[in-house]
Amino acid sequence: MTDERLKADLFGLKGRLFTLPAGADFIGELACTLIEATNARSVPENLADALIFVPNRRSARALAARLFQELGRPGFLPPDIRPLGDAGDNDPALLGELADVDIRPPMPAGGRLGALAKLVMHWHEVRGKHLTLASAVAVARDLGRLLDQAALAGSVEWGQLSSQVEDKDLAQHWQVSVEFLAIISDLWPALLDENGYSDTHDQDRLLAEALCARWERTPPTSPVIIAGST
User: Fold this and answer.
1) pTM of the predicted structure, to 2 decimals
2) Sheet hosting strand 51-54, strand order edge to edge
3) In angstroms, rounded to a whole number, what is the distance separating the alpha carbons of residues 124 and 29?
4) Which residues of 79-103 are buried (b: 16+ CB within 10 A; e: fewer)?
5) What's the sign of the alpha-carbon dihedral 136, 126, 128, 157?
6) What backbone phi and psi angles, to 5 degrees, belong to 113?
7) Residue 212 CB-density burial (10 A; 0-12 exposed, 13-18 middle, 19+ buried)
């Protein structure tokens, strides 16, 4: 990653895709290559215009800290580093584009986990089964992650689940899974609507779509890097 070819690839001069070997120091290699590719050690402001997407908030904080560690000096302006799930964060223009869109506030994280856990416990109780609170919370966390992935993907056709398996033996087991997933395909949207909430990532997805639409109209002139994601 640190040879001249890959440095050029990083800023779109010869390519658009590059990789790191397994076991490499991802944050360290990314930070050092960004610095070297932009000559930021000599001209710190060269890095300021870049927009860098990383997998999550933790890696965003880690990359910012590593850049400050390498370039922490007067005049250093850090790049715009955003988690992929928050593509439109810190962009007032994008928020303005959504000003006329009716987006309800997301349910607080604790309330969301508790509400999902109650739905899980109720699903089992209706079928004459007992589930401990700890188990229900664990399952609720898994359902929450599935909801997050579906929200960011957009346009998930939950109604098509029942037709995804054709083998009769497998289909019987799959049908139980489909019935269980009705918790998030049917019950969860109804609960959100009843309580005046949107799902957690609805606004994030709309902001990302607005960002993509803007770039289609006016492609960015500064470097845009998506790191650590397939």
Assistant:
1) 0.58
2) 80-83, 51-54, 224-226
3) 48
4) bebbbbbbbbeebeebeebeeeeee
5) negative
6) -65, -45
7) exposed
d(CA 214, CA 193): 30
* Strand ranges inside the chain, DSSP E: 51-54, 80-83, 224-226
Q: Give CA–CA dist 228/27, Å, rounded.
A: 9
Tokens for 69, please give them.
Answer: 């560690």
- The three-class DSSP label of residue 11 is coil
Cα(51)–Cα(35) distance, integer angstroms: 14
Q: Under 8 Å CB-to-CB from 155, ≥6 apart: which residues?
A: none
Q: How far is CA 83 from the centre of its chain?
A: 7
Strand partners, 135: none
Query: Which residues are 80's β-sheet partners?
Result: 51
| Model confidence pLDDT, tens digit, residues 37-85 | 888 888 877 888 888 888 888 888 999 999 988 887 666 788 889 887 6
- The amino acid at 72: G
